[in-house]
């Protein structure tokens, strides 16, 4: 928030306070005003002389462009708040015009009732405060002006020394020369500490009363103003009765100033107070999501900008779908552990990622069965071997050459390749051979030998090039066994790559972040999808057609969801990782299961037998309100 921004709005002095300022000249015949201004001038003159000794004081001109640190907020794609993060100060900055006049009056009344009259210091305030506090038997009014409090909060240490107080006064005079009263009041109300790590009027109002500062009633405003002197001690969350006592002191002070009537004060004291909850230390509603978003934004903008910059981050995630995904993973983890799949309940893990092929927006990301048990995000950070779920990258590469199609015959028979000092001899799952089969059949039943042969024929570097086009960034070496998934990839990479198949070759940048703005609404990052065609449409449509057979009559019949869907199972030869990655035109989802300690899974563990049902369960819930959409047919496109 800059001074220039404030000047554009030009908030007005609250009506009743303006009336009070006007009445000072009439009622006191300028006695109070004259005394105050004269005293201020005299003391100011003395302070100017003392200021020579304070040449190292901060330059208050920096306040013209001062931006208070502000809390950043992360939302789901529909605008529901997921998480707020901040440094020491949990604060949301708002202009003075959006702060209730009730709060302005209450704060000025109890903290500095002559704020609009003095020039930064108020010599008479010391004597007046002493007399008022003596008569009341408690601290009702302080000697420091609001401007001096602002100086102390912004520039000085809290030590109580004469030199510090003099420096405070000098800086207060300087500030009053460069900022007008409304700018100072706005700074103060956005800067002041209200307890429980709550800074500024808006954040405090949201936490204490679950409403904006612009909607505070007189009773609520008086209670908030009464907290400023000792916010933790006077907090209604800590001691409600003491907070009510402080409220009464503020209201009585406003009556004494004739800013409100006794009847208004009584009504305010009787107003029901409905407390909210402390917002400074709330946990994320979707921790695997927000952890990944924070990592992405920290790499782009830096940690300080994220913690202090008041960013408004709209993620791509649908919280409703995210919760479906979390429940699915949690329930199936328990079920698969009971079936003997995992080494132990704690070591056994599962990850699920859902990507919208139309936008490449990540809609859900679950990095484990329980974030509280383990914060490691296996969906975005764990690289595991995908097994046969890697094969579609090889088959697409073959189709894209134009030399192969779904019905092209390929020989499934023993073969060996020179590999170092020996030979690499691929084997099918179960050890048998099928002879000559179509490429369609080879992929449907996940034969290994045809995939290795195709990899050699089209070139492994070409396969790797396709993977890069699909957005896979993990290291990939052109080893002979690559077509069988001898590479480490993340579930997010797999879901995103398959999403490009689902969109028939169209791709935007895969992201968890739709847009980032600052607190004023200025766009800092805009990830509006910019789809471009990156794959051959005929080759992609052919692959989609073949992969439907995997679900309809191949290794993933347990994934049938009653609508056209394509997908591929994955099981590593060591049975340490099992996968199912599948999609419809509206959603691409990868599911992985394995042990964190890399121990083998239970005997007979396969992607089709154990995780394809997990995928089915999630997809049926996620697509419940989505229409059935067919994939495009290869006959709609020209063959390369």
Protein model, in words:
- This protein has 640 residues and is of the alpha+beta class.
- It has 2 domains: 3-67 and 98-270, Orthogonal Bundle (Penicillin binding protein transpeptidase fold), CATH 1.10.3810.10; 322-518 and 529-636, Beta-lactamase, CATH 3.40.710.10.
- It is 43% helix and 13% strand.
- The strands form 6 sheets. It has a 5-stranded mixed β-sheet. Strands 7-6-18-17-16 form a 5-stranded antiparallel β-sheet.
- The protein is elongated.
- The two termini are 58 Å apart.
- Mean pLDDT is 87; it is low at 1-13 and 21-53.
Entry keywords:
640 residues; alpha+beta; Penicillin binding protein transpeptidase fold; Beta-lactamase; 5-stranded mixed β-sheet; 23 helices; disordered N terminus
How are the SSEs placed, and which strands pair?
Layout: H1 3-9, H2 15-27, H3 31-51, E1 72-75, E2 81-85, E3 90-91, H4 101-111, H5 123-136, H6 146-154, H7 162-178, H8 181-191, E4 198-199, H9 201-209, H10 218-225, H11 231-234, H12 240-256, H13 262-270, H14 287-301, H15 303-308, E5 312-315, H16 319-338, E6 348-356, E7 361-366, H17 391-400, E8 409-412, E9 417-419, E10 422-424, E11 435-438, H18 439-444, H19 448-458, H20 460-469, H21 491-502, E12 506-507, E13 513-517, E14 523-526, E15 532-533, H22 537-553, E16 566-571, E17 577-584, E18 587-595, H23 607-622
Parallel strand pairs: 1-5, 3-4
Antiparallel strand pairs: 1-2, 5-13, 6-7, 6-18, 8-11, 9-10, 12-15, 13-14, 16-17, 17-18
């Amino acid at each position: 928030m800059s001074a220039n921004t404030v000047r554009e709005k030009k908030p007005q002095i609250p009506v009743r306070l303006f009336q009070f300022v006007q009445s000072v000249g009439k009622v006191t015949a300028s006695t109070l005003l004259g005394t105050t201004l004269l005293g201020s001038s005299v003391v100011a003159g003395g302070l100017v002389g003392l200021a020579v000794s304070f040449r190292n004081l901060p330059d208050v001109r920096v306040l013209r462009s001062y931006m208070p640190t502000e809390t950043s907020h992360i939302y789901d794609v529909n605008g529901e708040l997921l998480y707020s993060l901040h440094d020491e100060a949990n604060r949301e900055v708002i202009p003075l015009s959006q702060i209730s006049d009730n709060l302005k009056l209450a704060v000025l009344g109890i903290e500095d009732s002559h704020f609009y009259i003095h020039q930064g210091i108020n010599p008479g305030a010391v004597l007046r405060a002493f007399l008022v506090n003596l008569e009341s038997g408690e601290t009702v009014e302080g000697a420091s002006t609001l401007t001096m409090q602002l100086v102390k909060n912004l520039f000085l240490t809290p030590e109580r020394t004469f030199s510090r107080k003099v420096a405070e006064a000098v800086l207060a005079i300087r500030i009053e020369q460069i900022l007008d009263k409304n700018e100072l009041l706005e700074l103060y109300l956005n800067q002041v500490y209200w307890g429980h790590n709550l800074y500024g009027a808006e954040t405090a109002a949201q936490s204490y009363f679950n409403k904006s500062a612009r909607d505070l009633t007189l009773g609520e405003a008086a209670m908030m103003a009464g907290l400023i002197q000792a916010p933790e001690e006077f907090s209604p969350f800590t001691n409600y009765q003491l907070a009510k006592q402080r409220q009464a002191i503020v209201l009585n002070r406003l009556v004494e100033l004739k800013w409100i009537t006794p009847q208004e004060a009584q009504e305010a004291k009787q107003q029901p107070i409905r407390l909210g909850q402390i917002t400074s230390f709330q946990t994320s509603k979707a921790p695997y999501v927000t952890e990944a978003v924070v990592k992405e934004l920290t790499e782009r903008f830096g940690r300080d900008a994220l913690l202090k910059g008041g960013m408004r981050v709209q993620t791509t995630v649908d919280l409703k779908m995210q919760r479906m995904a979390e429940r699915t993973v949690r329930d199936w983890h328990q079920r698969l552990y009971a079936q003997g799949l995992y080494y132990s309940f704690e070591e056994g893990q599962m990850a699920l990622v859902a990507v919208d092929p139309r936008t490449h927006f990540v809609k859900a990301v679950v990095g484990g069965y329980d974030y509280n048990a383990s914060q490691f995000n296996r969906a975005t950070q764990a690289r595991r071997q995908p097994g046969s779920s890697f094969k579609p990258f090889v088959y697409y590469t073959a189709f894209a050459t134009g030399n192969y199609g779904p019905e092209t015959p390929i020989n499934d028979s023993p073969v060996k390749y020179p590999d170092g000092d020996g030979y690499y001899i691929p084997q099918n799952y179960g050890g048998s051979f099928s002879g000559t089969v179509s490429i369609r059949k080879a992929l449907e039943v996940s034969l290994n030998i045809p995939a290795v042969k195709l990899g050699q024929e089209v070139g492994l570097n070409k396969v790797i090039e396709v993977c890069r086009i699909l957005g896979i960034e993990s290291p990939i070496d052109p080893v002979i066994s690559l077509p069988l998934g001898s590479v480490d990839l993340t579930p997010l990479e797999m879901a995103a790559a398959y999403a490009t198949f689902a969109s028939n070759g169209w791709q935007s940048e895969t992201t968890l972040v739709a847009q980032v703005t600052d607190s004023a609404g200025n766009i800092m990052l805009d990830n509006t999808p910019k789809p471009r065609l990156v794959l051959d449409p005929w080759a992609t449509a052919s692959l989609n057609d073949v992969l439907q057979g995997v679900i309809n009559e191949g290794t993933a019949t347990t994934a049938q969801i009653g609508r056209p869907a394509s997908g591929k199972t994955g099981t590593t030869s060591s049975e340490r990782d099992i996968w199912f990655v599948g999609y419809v035109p509206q959603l691409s989802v990868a599911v992985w299961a394995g042990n964190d300690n890399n121990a083998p899974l239970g005997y007979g563990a396969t992607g089709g037998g154990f995780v394809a049902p997990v995928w089915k369960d999630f997809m049926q819930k996620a697509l419940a309100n989505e229409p059935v959409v067919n994939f495009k047919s290869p006959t709609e496109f020209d063959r390369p």
